Amino acid sequence: MSVDTRPHPVGSFGRARRSFREWRWQRPFWGGLWTLLSGIPIMYIPYQTMTLGDLHIRMATTAGAGSLIIGVLLVVLGLTLWFQQQSRIFAGVAAILLALVSLVVSNFGAFLIGFLLALLGGALGVSWAPGRPAAAAAVEPSAAVSLSKERDGGHGAE
Known about the structure:
158 residues, two-stranded antiparallel ribbon, 5% strand, 67% helix, mainly alpha
């Protein structure tokens, strides 16, 4: 008996990890994560007050509400990439557009942190494509042969 054929005991942690891995492979997980994380600095930094000794520096701008709206929308788009993977192209393009708007509205996209995360997440969301199961990939060549036989009147190459 070789090492590969021995049954491996799988505990609850192993089952949960395998289940999470399968869930993650069925959606643009990393694009959703970066998009979700991009909303946090965009929401937080414009409302932050920094203190340097006795000097209080307030980062709030007149468009603070706009920063809050952009941040919340980016978090929602990140969740949309995770749970509605059919609308991944819309969510990715919307995240890229909101990242560009955040440059003007919220302190250069929350000092470029949120901007870059939203651009990366949106690009990953747009570029992700669902994979085909291994069984479907193995069936396709025979389906192509049967279609060519029907088109040629049953005289297709075998």
